[in-house]
Every structure is written in structure tokens, then in C-alpha cells.
Amino acid sequence: MKNGTFLAAIDLGSNSFRLEIGRYDHGQIQRVDYLKETVRLGNGFDDERNLSFEAMTRGWECLARFAERLAGFGAAQVRAVATQTLREAKNRDEFLKLGCKILGFPIEVIAGTEEARLIYQGVSHLLPHSAERRLVIDIGGRSTELVLGSGTQTTQTASYRVGSVAWSMKYFPNGEFTEQTMYRAEIAAQAVLEESLMSYPRDQWDTAYGASGTVGAVADVLQIAGWPPGQITRESLNWLVKCLLRAGTAQNLRLEGLKDDRRAVIGGGVSVLRGLMELLRIDTLQVAQGALRHGVLLEMVERDAQGADARDMSVLRLAQKFAVDMAQGERVSRVAARLLEQIMPTDSANAAGLKRKLHWSALLHEIGMVISNSDYHKHGAYILENADTVGFSMSELYRLGLLVLGHRGKLKKLDTGFEEPEFVLLLLALRLAVILCHARQDPHDLGTVLTCNRKLQRFTMTVDDSWVTDYPQSAHLLRQESAAWQKTPWTFELIQA
Fold first, then answer.
1. Which domain holds residue 428?
2. Tens of pLDDT along 161-194?
3. How many structural domains does the chain have?
4. How many Cα atoms sit within 13 Å of 37 on the Cβ side?
5. CATH number for 77
């Protein structure tokens, strides 16, 4: 990455949307701009877990303002990630479709464990190099992330569905603070977080750090009130709870350093924080400077550096874990890559990204065989859709699962994707490669020529008569493939010349 390159990370949280812009400078990212808007997207759920139009509109309007600031940025310079609210929302596709159009860049919904990993990356890179074992917590609007790690490497990640917005709506709906409601909120938070005692016991970490959101808001109030800066203790948190109880309501709460956008969710945030500190025996929580958006920026740099990508290692780990035949996976990958090169537009700006996705799908196309040889493609798709896989967004795992599901058999089971030409190119290349490699040997495919007419949505594979004579089974499977594509908007023809 060239020095001076501008990068932007967007965090679509449950309470706030944040835009961080930095300039890459000799391995470091220097902040250029930071925008934050209180959107309260997580307040907009109805009883069926759908976001209200009003909540989505607030989000779209914020994204429009972010888009203006990002004018002139290229696709490789911007990454937008969404967290718990859009993980939960049943109508998230409606929000994302228009949101991506307004923003001008894709929006990735990331899994909770992936969010936790990126938070840790953001926190650890802004801390001094140390061998200490770290516990990092982040209490967001609708989820709380916990991470164990040392240096820049995580060893344990988890996400729990408890947060400042959700708890404020449930236990302090009218903004009223009483000892009873505060107690109920803390006990309920501990009930959700109780299983963390097994993975995050006190003897597994040396120092606890709190990142972003609730932790930052509480720390600001405590510092102005005279408590030691940069840390939260149980004693200081107890003092803050007494302040809330004396005020009685959020509206009457007068605390220096408490911003207006935090007033409505302070009760839920404090109850979760105090419950968590008591549960995990955290006497002192150090306030960290890094956050999710910083982790996103750092990962953009790492992916650019010599092609390094955490997703490549995740795919290899999955392949090893599920005892995939790597020789066959690599074989299918090589053949699929040759086929894709023949049909991919020469001016494709995403050529490298498409080849990488095709490689991943080829390596993992038999991952479901560990469960059963029958319908293994369906088992494989299920594994990928439900795996907590480092580096991947939920939408990326879904698309990867679709490729694995569709690499064999009828195509009607894929109820989406055929309107996206890039997905269709990957799907066809993978299916044809699997056919040509059916004998689990390097195929003699150099005499085949694959072409694509994207305007007519037509693929054509041309082979000579001698090839058909020498490889009758492959020719038979390709004719069956031609019939399979007739039931889609695209066609595939096998022509003997």
C-alpha cells in the first residue's frame, strides 16, 4: 500500500454509525477525520424483529451524509461493517439494498465472533507491545463482545446478545431508575453472560480493557467527577449507580461529561457493565483507545500487504478440520481458474477477488462429505452458513455456501444469484471443473474452449470430435450440464467442432 493512501472504515452499530478516515503512513494509520451520528437503529424493532421504516430512514440519511464525505474514494479504500441490529433484523436485506446504493459501497454484516476479533485488533494495535494476557470487552447497543488474547493474537472470542440499547428498552423503558429495576437488569445481564465464566475465568487474563460505547461514556463521566482517569473500578461504578438512583430518571440526570445521545441508554449500559465486572471479577477496567473501526482499517492494510488475508487461513483450517481431500480441492481450483479466465471480462476490476472466492469454494466444495456422501453439497452449505470463520462477513459465508450448494445437481435449489453475472461465472466455472475432475485426476481439458455472451446470457464450450471420443464420460456429464442450465435465465451449450 502506498504511503498517503486514504482509508475509511464505517461501523453501523445499534446505537451509532461511525466513520473513521485515516491516512496510511509507513505501516501506521493516522486519523484524518472521524464522524459519529446517533442513529438508534436498534430502537426500531417491532414484535416480529423487523426494523421500522423510521429507523431505517434514520440510517439511510446518515449513510447519505457519509457518502458525501467519501466522494472520490475507490472501492478498495472503504469497508463498511454492520453488527448486532442487522444480524437480528428479518428485513435487513431491505435496509442493506438501499443502504449500499446510497453509500456507494458494499455493507457487510459480520458475525459476533468476527466483530469481537476486529475489536481486539483495534484495541491491541493501540496498546504498547506486551506479553500480558488481555481480556477485552465491548458493550455495544445490542451485543457485548468478549475477547482473550496476547499481543495481536486472539485466543477466545464470543458475542452475547445483551447491550445498552436493548437493556434500556427492556428494563428502563420510561427512563426511570430504581434499585429494583437496576438489580433486575444486572441479574438478567449476568444470566446471559454466565456461560462466559467457563471461557474467561480470572486466571486466564492479566489485564482487562474496555472499548468504545458504554465504557467510553462511563469513563468520561467518572474522570470529570474526580475518579482516576482511564479506568473504571467497581467502586467508581457503584458511585455512578447511586447518581442514577438519586436522579430517578434519565431526564433528571445531571452529570458532567454525559452526552445527550448517551442519556437514554446509560441505564442499560451501566447495568450490563456492573453485572459483567462482578461476574468476571474485574476490579479495574482499563479504558482502551481502539475500537471496531480501527480493527477494520488495520485489516484493510493487512489484506493489501502481499495479499495477506485472514480468510485464506480460515479456509485452510476448515479444510483440515473437516478432512477435505486437499489434492482434489486444489485440482478443481486449478481447472476452475483456467475456465474463469476464459469467460471473465478483460476489464473486470474485481478479477483478483473473484479468483480468490473461486479458489475458496473449490477447496471446500467437498467439506460436507465428513457428514455424509449423500447430499454432501447440502451439508457443506450448512456448515459454511453457520461457521464462525475468521475474516468472513455473514454475506460472504452465505455466498460461499451457495457456491458449495450449487456445485453439483439441479440448479433450481439456488433461489438467488442468477441475476448477478459475477456469481454465475463463478458457479459455472466451479461446476464445469468438478465435472472435468470427476475421475479425481488431472483432466485433459486443454482442448476445450469456453466462451460467454453476457448480453445473451449464454455460455458455450467447444470441443473437437476426438476429445469426445477419448473422454466419453466427461462429454456425457457436460451434456447433462447443458440440460441443467436450461431451467435458469442462463444457457450452457456443448458444441463439437
1. 309-442
2. 999 999 999 999 999 999 999 999 999 999 999 9
3. 3
4. 15
5. 3.30.420.40
